[in-house]
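Sharing a chain and its predicted structure for anyone who wants a worked example. Both blocks are below, sequence first, tokens second.
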Amino acid sequence: MSQYRSRILGMGAYVPSNVVTNHDLAAMMETSHDWIVERTGIEERRWVLPGEGGAEMATHASKQALERAGLTAKDIDLIIYATLSPDNGFPGTAVFVQRMLGISEIPCLDIRQQCTGFVYGLSIADAFIRTGQYKNVLLIGSEVHSTGLDKTTRGRDVTVLFGDGAGAAVIGRAVDDKQMILSTHLHADGADAEMLWLEYPASREHPRITEEAMAAGKHYPSMNGKRVFKHAVSKLPAVLMEAMVTNNVQLKDIDMLIPHQANLRINQMVAQMIGMPPEKTHNNIQKYGNTTAASIPICMNEAIELGKIKRGDLVAIIAFGAGLTWGSCLVRY
């Protein structure tokens, strides 16, 4: 049995240059800067321009992660691509990133765990490296929400939340316990799957979408915001505690908490509930909105660039999203 452990070798991120402010949204629908900030903390987000998709953003982020890892694309043994917004219905977007990176033959895996996608991807990469099957794994979270949002007053509760962007991490073998993925913890409960979902188009329907469904806006994402908020503030502290108990660490031992960037108010409440001081939690949803599977790598990459996370620091990652799914990871960065 292999005794390999994994670590994060390098991270990267990319967001589109197109900034969309709350005031821009107020020109499209009945909302206001103050209304959005009060409920979500979001002040602006990035939306792609024509010709830019998830694969292109993912490639930019991946190249940065590879450079920081001291590797080239030829060193990668597996690509894991987490998204809820694939560039096409099929094939998965990972193969397009593979092509853009100039590599071939290696396996490409697309996963659909929405906001928890990066945590699920970390768990998969960690497992493959532990078995010795792969040495270097490229893990990507990339999302294009802007092309699938209802930009009218009808869809404002969802539309104001989301931004586009990509983040990536190169996961490789640990050489000691000073830099290591300690553990990952994954959960899902489909009992309330319709609480946050995209109903159409649907392959189970005949046809996959009708004019009536289009008119009703069912091809846009829908969310019961209050119930999602309630579930998130319940599950996130619990899954963080699960990781802490597993590794016999206390809250004071954690150097930085990286929560999924869904709503600043959720993250502030969770931090308050567990007693995590503000200086030990990094949030950047104010600038980028909710970028779903990309939010954790974008946020963690920024914290590293700002010097908030240094090599050897103990980093806690937590996420909650559609499915419903949630998870955590403790990383000795």
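Comments welcome. The chain has a mean pLDDT of 96.
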